[in-house]
C-alpha cells in the first residue's frame, strides 16, 4: 500500500524554467522523467505553479534601470530581480507537457500578488501570507512531504523549509531537482535545509 500520510510536492515544473525558457534552469527538463517515475509511488501528489501578473515586483523589467539577477530592497526584505517569467495564462507558465501525473490532486498557484513574491508553496515572501497548502495537507492527513522540482535553491528549498516549519517531516529528493545556483545559492540552500532538519535523499 502507498502510505496515505505522505505527499509528493512537485514544484514549478513549468516551461519557463526549462532550457530555452525565460528563466531557464540548467538541465531543468531532466526532472520530468524522474518525477513521472516517482509519482507512481505516491497516493497523494500536489503540484505548484509559479503564477505572476505581468507587472510583478520580482521582474527586473518593472524596475527602471535594473537588470535581471540584481537584488533590490523591498518592504519585506531583499528580492532578486528575475527575467519576466511564468506570467499568468502564458505558455511559459504552463506545466511541462511531459509531466504525466494523472492522479495529481491539486495545483497550488503562488506569486500571484503583484507586490509580493512567493518562492515558497506555503508562505509568501512577506513571510506572513499563507497559501493555504499547510492546512490542505493537514486536512488530507499528510505527515511527510517529499519535495521535487525547480529550482532546488529557490522554490524547492523555501518550500521545504516552510513545510518543516509548519510541522511536517520533510525531505528533498535531489535527483528530481535542478538548481539555478546564483552566487552560491545552492550550497547555501543545502546548508539551510540540513540545519533545519530537512533530509536530503
Ligand atoms: C523560482 C525564481 C523565481 C523557482 C520562481 O521556481 O525556483 N525561482 N520564481
Ligand atoms: Zn517566480
What proportion of the residues is helical, as a percent range? 10-25%
Gyration radius from CA atoms, angstroms: 16 Å
* Overall number of strands: 8
- CATH level-four homologous superfamily name: Isochorismatase-like
CATH topology: the name is Rossmann fold
Low-confidence stretches: none
- Which small-molecule species are bound to the chains here? pyrazine-2-carboxylic acid, zinc ion
Biggest sheet strand line-up: 5-2-1-6-7-8
**Average pLDDT:** 98
Rough shape? globular
Class in CATH?
Alpha Beta
Alpha-beta content class = alpha/beta
Number of helices: 4
Distance between the termini: 21 Å
Q: Could you please describe the fold and organization of this structure?
A:
- This protein is α/β, with parallel strands linked by helices and 201 residues long.
- It has one domain (6-54, 87-200): Rossmann fold (3-Layer(aba) Sandwich).
- Helix content is 21%, strand content 22%.
- It is built from four helices and eight strands, in the order βαββββαβαβαβ.
- The protein has helices spanning 31-39, 133-139, 152-165, 185-196, and strands at residues 6-11, 44-50, 71-74, 77-80, 106-110, 144-150, 169-178, 199-200.
- The strands form two sheets. The chain has a six-stranded parallel beta sheet with strand order 5-2-1-6-7-8.
- Strand 3 (71-74) and strand 4 form a beta hairpin.
- The longest helix is centred in the C-terminal third of the chain and has 14 residues, at 152-165.
- The two termini are 21 Å apart.
- The site of zinc ion has 6 residues, from loops.
Amino acid at each position: 500500500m502507498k502510505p496515505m500520510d505522505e505527499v509528493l510536492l512537485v514544484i514549478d515544473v513549468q516551461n519557463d524554467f526549462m532550457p530555452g525558457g525565460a528563466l531557464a534552469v540548467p538541465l531543468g527538463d531532466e526532472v520530468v522523467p524522474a518525477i513521472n517515475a516517482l509519482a507512481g509511488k505516491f497516493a497523494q501528489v500536489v503540484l505548484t505553479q509559479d503564477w505572476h501578473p505581468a507587472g510583478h515586483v520580482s521582474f527586473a523589467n518593472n524596475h527602471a534601470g535594473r537588470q535581471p539577477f540584481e537584488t533590490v530592497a523591498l518592504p519585506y526584505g531583499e528580492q532578486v530581480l528575475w527575467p519576466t517569467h511564468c506570467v499568468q495564462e502564458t505558455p511559459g507558465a504552463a506545466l511541462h507537457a511531459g509531466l504525466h501525473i494523472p492522479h495529481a490532486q491539486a495545483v497550488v498557484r503562488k506569486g500571484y500578488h503583484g507586490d509580493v513574491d512567493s518562492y515558497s508553496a506555503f508562505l509568501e515572501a512577506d513571510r506572513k501570507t499563507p497559501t493555504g497548502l499547510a492546512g490542505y495537507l493537514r486536512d488530507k492527513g499528510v505527515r511527510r512531504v517529499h519535495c521535487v522540482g525547480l529550482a532546488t535553491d529557490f522554490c524547492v528549498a523555501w518550500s521545504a523549509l516552510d513545510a518543516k516549519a509548519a510541522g511536517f517531516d520533510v525531505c528533498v529528493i535531489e535527483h528530481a531537482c535542478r538548481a539555478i545556483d546564483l552566487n552560491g545559492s545552492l550550497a547555501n540552500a543545502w546548508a539551510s535545509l540540513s540545519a533545519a532538519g530537512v533530509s536530503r535523499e
